[in-house]
Amino acid sequence: MSALDVRMFTVGPVQENAYIVTAGRERGRAVMVDPGDEPERLLAAAQALGVEIEAILITHCHFDHIGAVAPVARATGAPVYCPEIEVPLLSDISAGTPAGFGPFESWEPEHMVKGGERLTLAGLDIEVLFTPGHSPGHVTYALTPSAATLADAGHSAGTPAPAALAEGSPPPPPPEQVPALLSGDVLFQGSVGRVDLPGGDWHVLERSIGTLMERFPADTVVYPGHMGLTHLGRELQTNPFLAELHTSIGDSAAEVRGAA
Fold it and tell me: Which is nearest to 242 in space by CA: 188, 165, 201?
């Protein structure tokens, strides 16, 4: 079994993907990413997995990604890590919630992130990457098992392809030395995050996606905030919204990074 275990739960009317991530023999501890709705289901899932939620990580503060933050944080005692620019949206969640959704409860985060941080939580090394464009303060989390976890696990790396998942089932793990990208609403399978919401900007989003493409190998698995899993290389080659990036980065550069 891989040292990294990412469980996806699609929640709420907007069908947002929340995640519970554990590492190796640290399976009693986990982080939860973007608990957007249905807190009872997410808490029950953590209990069924036998894990304690050590931290709650937020990619951005649109209502569909933070609707369950308050009840999950209260029930678990886990500190919340929130993009610094978007803290006011979490602190007053009703201000950013469209009519017909909610009600949701506001929360004051214990920690703020803005990109560039490196966290060690639940046996995971977590790099915080600033990836605005869909929203002004959006971050992506690059997760790998910590060196200690890998040493304990003693696993060999593999590179399985993403596949369709039954809800709550473990997806095929990414290679152990390649980060898993918890990308929120930056990049999707065959699509990208909306830029028509307040603070959205296509050119900024395209630049953020390009940074991920250039920074990480093509076989890096992307765990998005909506829809199914994908790889960076697959999106560079086939995503119609990334045609200009494909041209600027170039096939040869993709091959150097390990594109199939």
Answer: 188
Distance CA 151, CA 114 (A): 30
Q: Give the three-state DSSP class for 184.
A: strand
Distance CA 98, CA 255 (A): 43
Of 32-41, 88-97, 119-128, 164-173, the range with the lowest mean pLDDT is 164-173
Following CA atoms 92, 95, 100, 106 in sequence, which dihedral angle do they give, to the nearest 10 degrees?
A: 0
Does 197 fall in a domain? Answer: yes
What's the domain count of the chain? 1
Q: Does residue 155 surpass a pLDDT of 80?
A: no
Radius of gyration of the chain (CA): 17
Segment 71-111, tens digit of pLDDT:
999 999 999 999 999 999 999 999 889 988 989 999 999 99
Q: How crowded is residue 154: how many other Cβ atoms within 10 Å of its Cβ?
A: 9
Q: Are strands 80-83 and 52-57 parallel, antiparallel or unpaired?
A: parallel
Residue 90 lies in a domain: yes
With respect to residue 165, please indicate whether it lies within any of the assigned structural domains: no
Do 21 and 36 touch, CB atoms closer than 8 A?
A: no
Q: What is the chain's mean pLDDT, rounded?
A: 87
- How far is 235 from 45, CA to CA, in rounded Å? 30
Assign residue 82 the CATH number of its domain: 3.60.15.10
At 221, the amino acid letter reads V
Q: What is the mean pLDDT of residues 215-234?
A: 96
Report the amino acid identity of residue 22. Answer: T
